[in-house]
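Fold Annotation — chain and its backbone
Encoding — discrete vocabulary of local shapes
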Amino acid sequence: MTKKHKMTVHEYEAYQKIHPYDDVLAEEKAKIEREVGAYQELSRRHGERIERQLQTLVAGGNPAAWEDDPSLDEEAQRAQRELRNARTHKRRLKGLKLHEGSG
């Protein structure tokens, strides 16, 4: 099992220089909510597009059209990137709570 990373004082000071928010905890929470919402929307759209593709194939459509659509992969990758960003901000939020609570 790996050791959990905790935000150091140096990282906290660097964060404060880059992000001059009045309420850093609320800003990070808003980022998490925005990114989770974007992930859910992208994931939903991706699922709908796959469903439409499958219905087209079942109805006798062209199977080559399925392979020629690289935007399906790009959409899935964008959704995963949003989820990773949300995870990063959640980790950062935990570190900020430690420093904001003690400072």
